[in-house]
Design a protein that fits this description.
The chain has about 120 residues and is mainly alpha-helical. Helices cover about 70% and strands about 0% of the residues. It is built from 7 helices and no strands. It starts with 9 loop residues before the first helix and ends with a helix.
Length: about 120
């Protein structure tokens, strides 16, 4: 079987793991319980628990919705997760560029990028 047909691919598993870590960091930094975050995002506490422990994978748009209820910018969390994932081998120029420049972007541009990520994720 071709590697591109394997699901989920190892790099997707690694990115999902890092996103979960970013979500837990964001939630705990804000002093939110898992139940409180789940309720704010319109999810059941059980679903939030299974997302954090890795037994449930959420679409990107749902992950963004969870981050929206913390003080952490969703794209910053994704950038950190991507950098952590690629840093397992060696950071790619793209992940370094993303991390160094993301927070320099004006809020309006970051919101456009976020909308683009959500729309692309919805089509996938």
């Amino acid at each position: 079987m071709s590697r591109w047909l394997d699901y989920p691919r190892p790099e997707e598993v690694a990115l999902d793991r890092e996103l979960r870590r970013e979500l837990v960091r964001a939630r705990t930094a804000d002093g939110l319980t898992r139940d409180c975050l789940a309720n704010a995002a319109g999810l059941t506490p059980y679903l939030a628990a299974t997302v954090e422990d890795g037994s449930t994978r959420l679409p990107t748009s749902r992950m963004i919705r969870l981050f929206d209820h913390t003080s952490t910018d969703p794209l910053t969390a994704f950038a950190h997760a991507l950098a952590a994932t690629t840093a397992l081998d060696q950071p790619t120029p793209e992940s370094v560029l993303l991390l160094t420049n993301h927070n320099r972007l004006p809020q309006q541009v970051r919101e456009r990028v976020r909308d683009l990520v959500v729309s692309v994720a919805a089509r996938a």
